[in-house]
Amino acid sequence: MSVANPRLRLVNDSETAVEPVVRLRQLNRHFGKNHILRDLDLDIGKSEFIALLGRSGSGKTTLLKLLAGIDQADGGEFTAPANRTVVFQEPRLLPWKKVWENVALGLPGSEGRTRALQALEEVGLAHRVDAWPGTLSGGEAQRAALARALVREPELLLLDEPFASLDALTRIRMHGLVDALWRAHRPAVLIVTHDVDEALLLADRVLMLDQGRITLDEPVAAARPRTLADPQIQAQRTRLLARLGVTPKGEDRP
Amino acid sequence: MTSIVSSDSVARGSMGDPVRSLKRIASKLWNPRATSPLLLLLLWEIGARTGVIPPRVLAAPSAVVGTFMDMTLSGELPWHLGVSLLRVLAGLAIGVAVGAALALAAGLTRRGEVLVDPPLQMLRTLPLLALVPLFIVWFGIGEAPKIGLIALGALFPVYLNLFNGIRSVDAKLVEAARVFGLSRRELIRHVVLPGAAPGFLLGLRYALGVAWLCLVVAEQINAASGLGALVNSARDFLRTDVIVLCLLVYAGIGLAADSLVRALERRALAWRPSFLEN
Question: Tell me, what's the ipTM?
Fold first, then answer.
């Protein structure tokens, strides 16, 4: 794997060459006659940020569920860290527990609240720690879900289209937040997304899944912090969209 | 200057125009929906006083109030009421406990569902009150058949609603809780039971209503004490005032029980959006 940012390349090359955090070899998953994942190979390096693109039904969610340990593969080699966690598309907060209790859910020991409060402060939700989840806005709820994932200090953070149901402005803010959190905590991240822009703004490496196979695996070379105006990003965006079957007609972005 | 103006306006606001402020108080106290019931009550009273409604058909409201005072002061009404309440409480305690235990067994384990659910689904189709003769054969005519009938009546709504509540807990929340490393016990405690609580409370509300109905039936069949016994002896002596009084007590307790469960819901389900808006 190669990453253009020289600092990142140092980290990634030295770590992944030795031992990736996630290692999948010849992984298969069937549901009845449907072959969802076919002989899939994938390595995710320590602290690497990967975006997984693909059309609906390409197997993205199945792959994420396998990585999360919610689902079992039908064959192949599978290695993933025990300390992994997920932010789902819906916040999935327990409505009968206050925000901080949701974040502290399942944490051992008595310092659950302290750690929850720290995590909530980090995602900018310190003022809502004692609120009921039912009173949160969509963006706030997803921040709480991020805090709940972060507080576990995961080696692998899985994001399942986490911002798909947020409005455009909130989504931009959430991108900034995820980027900052990733730089602060350095987990390996796999984000499943439909949004090519999101992938290019956040990830070190973009994968594309089609009919259960990885059909594209390329680094995002643009320097961080990234903007969509970056010509390098623009070029890659056009190429990725074409691979996804979207022609550049009618696509004019400043 | 400013202080003079403000004190002047305060004085005018609180004391000026007594007629208008009286009207405002009256309009606050008076609910227009109370008009027709009060009018009916008035007609009833007039009818009774003029002899249009003879006392053996229906006693006058004022007579009912008088009887209420007499029987309360003599201790007769409180004693019968206490006996009835104890029966309901005993029956409810048994019925709710057994119903909840069966619902947990059926809701939390597959084997429990296979064992528990079919017979209960069959039994619940029986009209409850049709079991009364069998209960008398089994338990005689003491307290046991009365409490047993109330318990059985309360069991079904608790079982059905709690079982349904457990099974309709959002699978996505369960999945998320597993990802965050909750054990099965923690999952039940933090996710399944709180998620099923609204169903349980709904069942409890139904159970209270059914228990009260069963009490009426059980006591009127054979009882030496309790509200039903009071109604029975009043019937023998054509005392419609006592019968109407007992009906009012039944209604009042039904209302009180319902608002008790509602208060319980407000406390236990404070997180619900419907309560949050209030």
Answer: 0.84
